[in-house]
Amino acid sequence: MKTRIFVTLKGGVLDPQGKAIHHALEGLGFDGVNDVRAGKLIELDLDDGVSDEQIDEMCRKLLANTVIENYRIERVQG
Amino acid sequence: MKTAVIVFPGSNCDRDLAVALEQVTGRKAEMVWHGATDLPDGVGLIALPGGFSYGDYLRAGAMSARSPIMRAVVEAAGRGVPVLGVCNGFQVLTEAGLLPGALMRNAGLNFVCRDVRLTVDNAQSAFTSRYDAGEEILVPVAHHDGNFFADDETLDRLEGEGRVAFRYAEQVNGSARSIAGILNAQGNVLGMMPHPERVIEAAHGRSDGRRLFEGLLETVA
């Protein structure tokens, strides 16, 4: 089963990369972009037996650094 | 004093550290591959070098912090063995949970490679006893991810407990409260972004980093 992990910076954490992307979008002439935050998408192909708790543990132990990042787990059907 | 330098795939300052340690201790440092599970017996100092281990994949230091040798490093740190992490080594120590906070992309987004002025904040630790509190020293940095971040509560605690070893005396990378190097609660683990091993002899132009190693030798031996 495919599972997607979305890793994003926590709210209070400054995101210089997001700021640079924002700046570049403005440079290309795109108006109306209020803010940009950059994150990561990690796709896992897992055996059906892998539990939600195990995925959560993977996130906490390696995939996200919970000092600065939040994560969201999304199981993809099919 | 017997010293060990941990070598990760992508470390590139491991030899600099080994040379600095040998110059100060008079004894060759043992190079320990990250895949090893044990440290040399009786090691008095463990050093984690700078570099770009695992190409900074996922996050700087993230993969190395989970390598087999780190279990032994964490265990040794718990027993009070001094552990020094420089640059990527500092990133590995935070990722391994031996030090609080995280090192993020430099606020200016640029790789910063130059000499920077540092202030010695705590001159009482095993690593900094040869410096004077408030003394200014010049040490090179070379990093892309040196922007120290921790929540306010953690920063207050670090400052309140005298665990800020070095601060930048100029704008470098956007680090919270200008923090350049921090100690763990026991005072036997130091992580710092600047490279003391690159300024230890006259040929380097300066030797401001040498006293860090000399102080350690004095305290530990």
TrEMBL record, chain A:
It is found in: Cytoplasm. It comes from the Bacteria. It is an enzyme of class 6 (ligase). The keyword Amino-acid biosynthesis does not apply. Pfam families: PurS. Signal peptide: none annotated. Its EC number is 6.3.5.3. Pathway: Purine metabolism; IMP biosynthesis via de novo pathway; 5-amino-1-(5-phospho-D-ribosyl)imidazole from N(2)-formyl-N(1)-(5-phospho-D-ribosyl)glycinamide: step 1/2. GO terms for molecular function: phosphoribosylformylglycinamidine synthase activity. Keywords: ATP-binding, Cytoplasm, Ligase, Nucleotide-binding, Purine biosynthesis. It catalyses: N(2)-formyl-N(1)-(5-phospho-beta-D-ribosyl)glycinamide + L-glutamine + ATP + H2O = 2-formamido-N(1)-(5-O-phospho-beta-D-ribosyl)acetamidine + L-glutamate + ADP + phosphate + H(+). Belongs to the PurS family. Part of the phosphoribosylformylglycinamidine synthase complex involved in the purines biosynthetic pathway. Catalyzes the ATP-dependent conversion of formylglycinamide ribonucleotide (FGAR) and glutamine to yield formylglycinamidine ribonucleotide (FGAM) and glutamate. The FGAM synthase complex is composed of three subunits. PurQ produces an ammonia molecule by converting glutamine to glutamate. PurL transfers the ammonia molecule to FGAR to form FGAM in an ATP-dependent manner. PANTHER family: PHOSPHORIBOSYLFORMYLGLYCINAMIDINE SYNTHASE SUBUNIT PURS (PTHR34696:SF1). Part of the FGAM synthase complex composed of 1 PurL, 1 PurQ and 2 PurS subunits. This is Phosphoribosylformylglycinamidine synthase subunit PurS. It comes from Sphingomonas colocasiae. The gene is purS.
TrEMBL record, chain B:
It comes from the Bacteria. It holds the Pfam family GATase_5. It is found in: Cytoplasm. CDD domains: GATase1_FGAR_AT. It catalyses: L-glutamine + H2O = L-glutamate + NH4(+); N(2)-formyl-N(1)-(5-phospho-beta-D-ribosyl)glycinamide + L-glutamine + ATP + H2O = 2-formamido-N(1)-(5-O-phospho-beta-D-ribosyl)acetamidine + L-glutamate + ADP + phosphate + H(+). The active site is at residues 87, 195, 197. Keywords: ATP-binding, Cytoplasm, Glutamine amidotransferase, Hydrolase, Ligase, Nucleotide-binding, Purine biosynthesis. Its EC number is 6.3.5.3, 3.5.1.2. Pathway: Purine metabolism; IMP biosynthesis via de novo pathway; 5-amino-1-(5-phospho-D-ribosyl)imidazole from N(2)-formyl-N(1)-(5-phospho-D-ribosyl)glycinamide: step 1/2. Signal peptide: none annotated. Part of the phosphoribosylformylglycinamidine synthase complex involved in the purines biosynthetic pathway. Catalyzes the ATP-dependent conversion of formylglycinamide ribonucleotide (FGAR) and glutamine to yield formylglycinamidine ribonucleotide (FGAM) and glutamate. The FGAM synthase complex is composed of three subunits. PurQ produces an ammonia molecule by converting glutamine to glutamate. PurL transfers the ammonia molecule to FGAR to form FGAM in an ATP-dependent manner. Part of the FGAM synthase complex composed of 1 PurL, 1 PurQ and 2 PurS subunits. This is Phosphoribosylformylglycinamidine synthase subunit PurQ. It comes from Sphingomonas colocasiae.
